[in-house]
Design brief:
The chain is of the alpha+beta class. The chain has a domain of 149 residues. The strands form 3 sheets. It has a 5-stranded mixed barrel with strand order 4-5-12-7-6. A hairpin with a 2-residue loop joins strand 1 and strand 2. Helix 6 packs antiparallel against helix 7. The longest helix is centred in the middle third of the chain and has 37 residues.
Length: 600
């Protein structure tokens, strides 16, 4: 197993130099100075290196088992969760009242990235708990907060998000799990849920589900969905934990991401399952979207972490594996490290473009999240809109491209990449879940094209284009980036013109034609956004190279950044033009194809 799973040098560059460039006056991690930020990052890295990474392969090869109605996970999950609770990682983003530090979103996502790169399966337990706890903290009553938050934030109780049902996957308006009001103010919950991550396990003392259900006589569809706290064990009047009639009916066996269980649950078989309403009735989906949006960033972060670890495994292998001779040196007798071969460099450049571009996007979303809360009220809307339009990209680009990136990692290793002697085959399996998790790529495409680019008559898109135009303007001032600025300006025009063409298609042919290729639009948009972020990174690197007393190692690092930007603009950015051509066809082939055309 490769000992390296990420680059702290690149992570700190992304926070202090890339994000720092955008903050303009604020400190690089919200209210935390650079020294304190680095202390937190270093502590997270040491914990990930010592406690999480050594279990990476072991958790995969010994997946959770369902035994006598309980899910058994790796014995060290309990130790990891308790340490994350005791050391304040789970409560870090909460107020001091809950032993929190008000950690900024930038720093929070950076820490999650470290944990995910070290061992994604081990990282998700605390991520889910944080998301569920935030829902209770934001929308729950004081009683719910006092009952559940201390145990969840300590790492003793697990939190989950229980949405999906056997007949209602992404179509949440069709869910049928019921909630019947009782005299004591609780609700009798009955129904089934599937694909519940960490839905049960013995690494904690209790599992707390944030569950969507429909109250009797509630409106149909999404307007009648409410949110409930449904624990596996519920406290009675004396504070003792008693069974809450939540049964694990199956554990799903997965191709990857095996260390964390995904379960099927049945509630109310004995008519003894009780749920506790969060907030107001029929507003559950609105509340849940808070967790879902955070979870979508977590998915993008997880994919970024996995592809980063796979890249470093491939890079290490390419440096030591000798095969073939130098094409340029005809007198060469001895084999050379495969990193000398242009095609291997191409594969490594692609991986670095994807992983470091995705990390920049995730942390930029963290910055916009911070600014949407920290600035004056009249300044917050801009950054809230920028975050909103980037969420589907930050979820989907890292997820989809991680599949391609980890595949290229395997390719660097040749036949060994397909064997479990090396970790890249596990990374490839682990990352495949991310385009499915928390809204498929198709749903993200419809979210971007169907809603986000139309927010407030297109205001979010206008603001984003404005930020990109600023970067293009800065690039024009540097001779080295003159061509790149022209390329970026050209694709910006293409993206904007394509969007306008699609608006016209909507008016002429209706919503179905407009959204028929929403996933293609999302793909085009993703290439566009990552191109922008690489141009920013390259300019930051160039500025640092022009400074005084630059270390030799830093020179190589900054020059490498510029080379990746050159690779991206030469090899990936041009794909926008072909995608735009697909999108602007007058009759989308997905509309003109009938169901009977698939008859064999």
């Amino acid at each position: 197993m490769s000992k390296r799973f990420m680059s702290m040098r690149n992570l700190k560059f992304t926070i202090h130099e890339f994000i720092g460039k955008n903050i303009k006056g604020l400190t690089p991690a919200g209210k935390t100075d650079i020294k304190s930020t680095d202390m937190i990052l270093n502590a997270a890295f040491e914990f990930a290196k010592d406690a999480m990474h050594p279990l990476f392969e072991e958790m995969d090869r010994h997946p959770p088992q369902l035994c006598d109605g309980r899910v058994r996970v790796h014995k060290d999950v309990r130790k990891i969760m308790q340490t994350l609770g005791d050391d304040g990682w789970i409560s870090a983003t909460f107020p001091e009242k809950w032993n929190g530090q008000h950690m900024s979103a930038v720093l929070f996502h950076a820490v999650n990235f470290i944990f995910s790169a070290a061992n994604y399966s081990a990282a998700v337990f605390q991520e889910l708990t944080i998301g569920a706890a935030h829902l209770i903290h934001t929308f729950g009553s004081e009683t719910l907060q006092q009952t559940y938050l201390p145990h969840m934030l300590s790492g003793r109780w697990q939190g989950t998000m229980a949405l999906t049902e056997p007949e209602a996957g992404s179509s949440l308006g069709d869910l049928i799990t019921s909630a019947t009001p009782l005299k004591d103010g609780s609700y009798a919950i009955a129904g089934d849920k599937i694909f519940i991550s960490a839905g049960d396990h013995d690494g904690v003392d209790n599992v707390v589900h944030l569950m969507l259900a429909r109250i009797k006589d509630a409106p149909s569809g999404v307007k009648g969905i409410s949110l409930f706290v449904v624990p596996r064990l519920r406290p009675d009047r004396n504070g003792n934990l008693i069974d809450n009639d939540v049964t694990v009916n199956q554990i799903f066996h997965k191709m990857g991401y095996r260390g964390s269980p995904i379960t099927g649950l049945t509630m109310g078989e004995k008519n003894a399952c009780r749920g506790f309403l969060v907030g107001e009735p029929n507003k559950g989906l609105m509340y849940m979207f808070q967790m879902m949006n955070g979870a979508r960033l977590d998915v993008g972060t997880g994919a970024t972490g996995i592809s980063t670890a796979a890249y470093h495994a491939a890079l290490d292998y390419a440096r030591i594996r000798k095969q073939g001779r130098s094409i340029s040196d005809k007198k060469s007798i001895d084999p050379v490290p495969i990193i000398s071969h242009p095609d291997v460099k191409r594969m490594l450049l692609f991986q670095r473009a994807v992983t470091e571009g995705s990390l920049a996007l995730i942390l930029l979303c963290g910055l916009y999240d911070d600014l949407s809360h920290e600035l004056r009220e009249d300044q917050r809307e801009k950054y809230a809109l920028l975050l909103d339009i980037l969420i589907p990209v930050a979820k989907s680009f890292p997820s989809e491209m991680s599949i391609l990136s980890t595949s290229q990692s395997m390719q660097c290793l040749g036949g060994y990449g397909y064997c479990d002697d090396f970790p890249v085959e596990q990374h490839f399996r682990d990352t495949r879940i991310h385009p499915i998790h928390e809204g498929t790529t198709g749903i993200q495409g419809m979210d971007l094209l169907g809603r986000k680019v139309r927010i407030l008559n297109g205001k979010a898109l206008v603001l984003l284009m404005g930020e990109i135009e600023k970067t293009i303007g800065e690039a024009r001032e540097h001779a080295q980036f003159e061509t790149a600025s022209e390329d970026m300006s050209a694709v910006a025009s293409t993206v904007y013109a394509t969007t306008q063409t699609l608006f016209g298609m909507k008016n002429d042919r209706g919503e179905e034609a407009y959204l028929s290729n929403a996933t293609i639009y999302l793909e085009m948009f993703g290439y566009f956004i990552i191109g922008w972020l690489w141009l920013v990174q390259a300019m930051v690197a160039k500025k640092q190279l022009m400074g005084k007393k630059v270390k030799k190692t830093d020179i190589r690092f900054y020059e490498g950044k510029i080379k990746v930007q050159e690779y991206y603009f030469a090899n990936e950015l041009p794909k926008i033009q072909s995608l735009a051509k697909i999108l602007t066809r007058q009759v989308p082939v997905t509309i003109s194809t009938r169901e009977d055309h698939f008859t064999n």
